[in-house]
Amino acid sequence: MKKSDKPLFVDGLTEKLKTASGYILVDFNGLTVKMQQDLKNRLREVGGEMEIVKNTLFKLSAEKAKSPSDITSDTVLQGPTALIVTKEDPIATLQIVAKFAKESEVPQLKVGVVEGSFQDKFALIKLASLPGKPILQAQVVGAISAPLYGIVGTLQGNIQKLLFILSEKSKS
């Protein structure tokens, strides 16, 4: 990359980080071109995007985007780094990366930011094991509505008993 192109790249990357719902840094060492293409295709299906970035340019962009300071530490930004960004569901993107890493043993998760919150490698692995956002939302709705259905069933049972008693009384 030419020196004159770097400020434009940093500005573009800063804008991506500001508008992203989540992004993950991974060590892509050992990832072949074919594997990169496969991962990029899988990420594209869930609204994710992967690009290789220089650590210094990422650090500048992250600082401009006011990202958590932990993500720009020197221990994190060592070695080859790929940035995976999503504007949609960050958990779905994380699940794709984690599944791909299990299958091929590369890339290795470093750290990430999920909906504005810094996550280390272990937190990312835990988040990847969660079901997707729509499933979690359905589970919450089900948990909230279950007691309501129980109350309705109980009240209907009492009304049915009352109707049965009244109909027996009217027969006699």
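[next item in queue]
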Amino acid sequence: MREIVFDTETTGMDPAEGHKIIEIGCVELDSHIATGKTLHLYLNPERDVPAEAVAVHGLTEEFLKDKPTFGEVVGEFLDFIGDDAKLIAHNAAFDMKFVNAELKTFGFPSIDPKRVIDTLVMAREKFPGSPANLDALCRRFNIDNSNRTLHGALLDSELLAEVYMELLGGRQRGLEIEPQTQTVQHNSAIKTERPYREPRSFPPTQDELTAHKALMEKLKSA
């Protein structure tokens, strides 16, 4: 089961007011295990970046002016998330309204909300009344977020992937394999190395297939 944990940084709070995505970070999971594949894009919003937004993520108009626009990388983004992978985001409504606004601008259909899982909703349901922002959840689950001095789409996606696995019931500790690293190129000056773990396959045995077939034959309207 393929899932994409993702985050965006933007010029403001609402695409209806002309604000744009300026950074996208994506982390691939397979069966809730990070594969090491990531996508990291900085984007030229073709507009100013307000000072209050820069204070959050540190991305200035000067830094972004030579980066591609969303329209120039939309194919790369859509290829990475695929057609049916679940999309995991924290406060997903915010990210999705920007992603769908950008897709609409360039003539692409909106992403089906049924594909989206909101970890903010998960956290509030699991820990009602407790702080549910990303920093608070990292502290709760003892996830090291000491590098998070500013918001950053890829770093936040990597942290959120760990938080998501904890919200599902906890990572399986002690089962780590010596990692191979897979470096993923993107349009920033930063290269990210993450452990790569081969997806595991669990094909059914012949006895299981035979038992399944026998069970199906007993069911009505199977």
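[queue empty]
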